[in-house]
Design a protein that fits this description.
The complex is a heterodimer of chains A (180) and B (541). Chain A is an alpha+beta fold and 180 residues long. Chain A has a domain of 122 residues: Rieske Iron-sulfur Protein (3-layer Sandwich), CATH 2.102.10. In chain A, 16% of the residues lie in helices and 29% in strands. In chain A, the strands form two sheets. In chain A, strands 1, 2, 3, 4, 9, 10 and 11 form a seven-stranded antiparallel β-sheet that branches. The longest helix of chain A has 28 residues. Chain A is elongated and about 85 Å long. Chain B has three domains: 70 residues, no CATH class; 274 residues, Up-down Bundle (Cytochrome Bc1 Complex, Chain C), CATH 1.20.810.10; 116 residues, no CATH class. Chain B is built from 18 helices and six strands. In chain B, strands 3-4-5-6 form a four-stranded antiparallel β-sheet, covered by helices on one side. In chain B, strands 1-2 form a two-stranded antiparallel sheet. In chain B, a hairpin with a 2-residue loop joins strand 4 and strand 5. Classes of the chains: A alpha+beta (180), B alpha+beta (541). The interface between A and B is medium-sized, with 19 and 21 residues.
Chain lengths: 180, 541
């Protein structure tokens, strides 16, 4: 039977080299195209849509003694504690139910498995692994400058008196502290 | 019970132990390549890329035999059809455009909702708020028009080379069906932006469904297509479903049938080489073969790349799909036109009864095309022996071009000259000439007061856009002055251009054309065009 294969690998000639170069450039182009498609396909969040920013007047911030305000379109509770303002994510950190504010007990209670949290989101008891998550709150003055912002630890932010509006960024969530 | 499986018996690890790392990796790579191609190992692949002769048996036929992707593609072609002539790759490119449209269409579906409330806002979002949104939309639109063009060219080529003759008659029939689906796909997609252009073009087209005889059939077809007596939410949804799933599935099925027949009978050779009924697919002499891998595959990749490049360059620098105002069922805009491949139908419809012109004649044409190969049983394919058939086709194309011209706004739908001039300067549905003028020039023109079109040269600075627009205005008015009143001329016509500041960043252009009404008084046509500082459009379309 005639020998049909080469024993030693043949040296690369120009045609083969060019084929590899073409292959690499086509792959690069397809890669770039895929990148463009992914950039195109990523969801766009608009102001006023969950995932985007919510702009509220300081007049809607509840007083310190009052219970937190429900903002269903932004999926957060606006809570005013002695230490400042918080935007607490309405989803319980246990398994995803929406907990409720129980006025009689002055705390948040989740109906699904009984997790309980304080007005500032701190974990009290229950199967939830951590305190409630919160969104970054920024205080804006009349000129549009940011004069206050939720710290990275997620604690309440004190709003100076010049604050005209608050901006709540539902695209950036700070997880609550895990309890012991 | 003990299992037979032991981790150290994995083939790669066994190889590693027996022959060392380098050999193990090389042999595994070789094996993987053999399975992926399938059928070519690294040495075969390299030999193919190097341009070596394949040897016997030819290993490059194995991917066709063993693999799914190449199973329907011929292993080899007759070398006389591998050049640009006679096919010009038009069949391959028609398929390419179908795939391109499917892909860009799916991407557009991410941001589009087929609701009359949301469609237009979605279009605005795609065009302004999505990265590469305008790019995707323009590609989809240009690709659709290119697909219609290439499918038509493919049909013309097939006719000219008499490739529809025995035994390929049914291939031609499926081709005509595919042409119909391509046009129908384009038609259904046209409605989706839900702007004035879409709404009225489709209203006209859909009313041809209503014109189908007998009247009860027409009403049935109309309601099935539009989902309601008028074009509204139901119609948009039905057109959307037809466009994204109904027609693509049908088109795909017929593409499969069409291509299977092409491979079965073999691609027809140039007319000088293959007589009617000769089988050239099954008996290609070895010295006339060109193998699919690598030559034809490379050629297909090349043409895909070139056409993609041309499309991207066109979309980036030359072409932009337009979006007119939101669809308004209460107002049909002046000079509504069909897309260019339906101009011939619009031309026909200007001539008479819609059932005859819009339904019967196109249907007769369609049927005639389909049955043509069963009637044209002449024994010749060569051009010189088919002079009558070729002349007939040229005549048909000429007639189509004439009817297409008749479909443009230049035939039978010219209105009064003042309306025509206003349409050019300040149309209701597209920017028009006045919107090309930059805001700053208009702001400066406020101080000129009312500019008379006959005396603008002393007032308006040369070289500005405003000067250019006034030139067009003056020229059109002069033309209207020359035409005799019985033929629609405007005696004693004058034109005025005034710019006022309406709000801090908003000016308004007031256009007035006035002429003698022949009864001692004057008639006028006024148009008011607000222009905002931030809204520079830049082109008249």
């Amino acid at each position: 039977m005639a020998e049909t294969t080469v024993n030693a690998p043949a040296p690369m000639n120009r045609r083969e080299f060019l084929s590899y170069i073409w292959g690499a450039s086509i792959t690069l182009m397809l890669g770039g195209g895929t990148g463009a498609v992914l950039w195109y396909a990523f969801p766009r969040f608009r102001e006023g849509e969950f995932g985007g920013q919510f702009r509220l007047n300081t007049s809607v911030i509840p007083p310190e003694t009052a219970p937190p305000e429900d903002h269903p379109e932004g999926r957060f509770w606006l809570s005013n504690t002695g230490q400042g303002v918080l935007a607490i994510y309405k989803v319980c950190t246990h398994l995803g139910c929406l907990y409720k504010w129980t006025p009689a007990n002055d705390r948040f209670e989740c109906p699904c498995h009984g997790s309980k949290f304080q007005k500032d989101g701190t974990y009290i008891e229950g199967p939830a692994p951590r305190s409630l998550d919160r969104f970054i709150v920024r205080g804006i003055d009349v000129d549009g400058n940011i004069i206050a912002e939720t710290p990275d630890t997620g604690e309440a932010v004190l709003l100076p008196p010049e604050t005209a509006q608050i901006l709540i960024d539902t695209g950036k969530r700070i997880n609550g502290k895990p309890h012991g | 019970m003990e299992s037979n499986f032991d981790l150290k018996d994995l083939p790669f690890l066994k190889l590693l132990r027996e022959k060392g790392l380098k050999t193990a990796v090389l042999e595994t790579v070789d094996d993987v390549v053999l399975r992926l191609t399938p059928g070519l190992n690294v040495a075969d692949l390299r030999s193919m890329l190097r341009g070596d002769p394949p040897g016997r048996p030819n290993p490059r036929l194995r991917p066709h035999a063993d693999g799914f992707w190449l199973h329907i593609r011929p292993g080899y072609y007759n070398r006389h059809i591998t050049g640009l002539y006679p096919s010009f790759r038009l069949g391959w490119l028609s398929t390419y455009f179908f795939v391109l449209e499917a892909l860009t269409g799916i991407f557009l579906m991410l941001f589009y909702t087929p609701s009359t409330r949301l469609a237009y806002p979605n279009m605005l979002q795609i065009l302004s708020n999505v990265p590469f949104g305008q790019f995707m939309r323009d590609l989809h639109r240009l690709g659709a028009e290119a697909m219609v063009l290439f499918v038509a060219l493919h049909m013309i080529r097939t006719y000219i080379t008499a490739s529809y003759k025995k035994p390929r008659q049914f291939t031609w029939v499926t081709g005509i069906i595919l042409l119909f689906f391509t046009l129908f796909l384009s038609f259904t997609g046209y409605l989706l932006p839900w702007d004035q252009l879409a709404y009225w073009a489709v209203t006209i087209g859909a009313s041809m469904a209503e014109a189908a005889p007998p009247p009860i059939m027409g009403q049935f077809a109309n309601l099935m297509l539009k989902g309601a007596p008028d074009l509204g939410p139901n119609g948009l949804l039905r057109f959307y479903l037809l466009h994204v799933i109904g027609l693509p599935v049908l088109t795909l099925i017929f593409i499969f049938v069409h291509y299977y027949k092409v491979v079965l009978h073999g691609h027809s050779l140039p007319p000088e080489r293959e007589k009617v009924g000769e089988d050239t697919a099954k008996r290609v002499p070895v010295d006339e073969r060109r193998y699919f891998l690598p030559d034809i595959a490379a050629s297909e990749i090349l043409w895909t790349g070139v056409v993609t490049l041309l499309l991207i360059v066109a979309v980036t620098f030359l072409y932009s799909a337009k979006l007119e105002n939101h669809a308004n069922p209460l107002n049909t805009p002046f000079h509504s036109v069909a897309p260019w491949y339906f101009y011939w139908a619009q031309g026909l419809l200007k001539l008479g009864d819609k059932t005859l012109m819009g339904v019967i004649i196109p249907s007769i044409l369609l049927v005639m095309f389909m049955v043509m190969p069963y009637f044209d049983t002449g024994p010749f394919r060569y051009y010189g022996r088919r002079r009558f058939a070729l002349s007939l086709s040229m005549l048909f194309i000429t007639i189509m071009v004439i009817f297409s011209w008749m479909g443009t706004p230049y035939f039978a739908v010219q209105s009064s000259l003042d309306q025509e001039i206003m349409f050019e300067l300040a149309p209701t549905e597209k920017p028009g000439l006045v919107r090309v003028i930059p805001y700053e020039e208009l702001e400066a023109a406020i101080s000129y007061g009312t500019i008379n079109a006959d005396a603008f040269r002393e007032i308006v600075p040369r070289g500005t856009e405003l000067y250019h627009v006034m030139e067009v205005f003056a020229r059109e008015l002069e033309h209207a002055r020359q035409v005799p009143p019985e033929k629609g001329g405007l005696p004693g016509v004058e034109g005025f251009f005034t710019v006022e500041q309406v709000q801090p960043d908003l000016v308004a252009v007031n256009l007035v054309i006035s002429w003698d009404d022949g009864k001692g008084g004057r008639q006028s046509n006024e148009q008011f065009v607000p222009v905002h500082r931030e809204a520079y459009i830049g082109s008249e379309e």
